Amino acid sequence: MSTNKSEEAIKEKILNAAKKNPKGISDKDIKAAVPELSSGELVAAINSLLQQGCFDLFNQCGSLIYRLKAQTSKTAVKGADNEEKVVYNLIEEAGNKGIWIRDIRVRSNLANTQLTKVLKSLESKKVIKAVKCVNASKKKVYMLYNLEPDRSISGGAWYQDQDFESEFVDILNRQCLRFLQQRADKIKNNVRGPIVGRTQSYATGAEVHKYITDLGISNVTLDVEDVVTILNTLVYDGKAESSVYPDGSKVFRAIESLLPPPGLVQVPCGVCPLIHKCYSKGLITPQDCTYMNEWLE
Description:
With 297 residues, this protein is of the alpha+beta class. The chain has 13 helices and ten strands.
């Protein structure tokens, strides 16, 4: 009996640690939350919680991350009225991209006053949350409390509280370029010839990502996709070029620019989540971009 109580107490401590970190916890975080656990007990407790469906499991930069499943929030709406259940289900269906209040109102057929009351009730129970969109500062979407917003909503690593982190992007930009230049300088006088040297001067996003991670200059966890985004800004700035290997992987190398760089990284275009839509619509100049004008204000 005491053993079962002890196991339940351990699980409760792990779950409490996960609730405090909606983005997920690692083995290191769990050990810090429950330092008395041995390695064997840690594995047993985590496996038990995974079997019970308490966690979603992710691989982040080689480390396992345990994120509390959003569905565990359903316990908060078990005793709720039908209106709360309807709104909750609509928000759950929207996933991590969220849903506008207007769409909730249309699909639930609730009046504005009643819908506002329901949303406030679910927010107070920490079942759902409202998230501002980086591409529309006045727009809020609702999603389940434990979900991490999609990059199209949050802007990813380049935004903090919906503010574009230009200094952070600039630092990463310079460090990525430094890595590519060091790679190019190292093999500039390759004895096997200029063609082989040129080929070897290319670096993959994973290689640059490892370099940035080892530097420890980022307070947020960056993935390879984030670093590739930065490398693309170097290409836009004319400081690097990209190529594609036969296996489909994209690679980058530093180049000597003949023209002054346009400075895309100084404005949000280089890391804007809407850049592909922007180009597809032909909005080439900043004056034509509504998002740019909002950022400048």
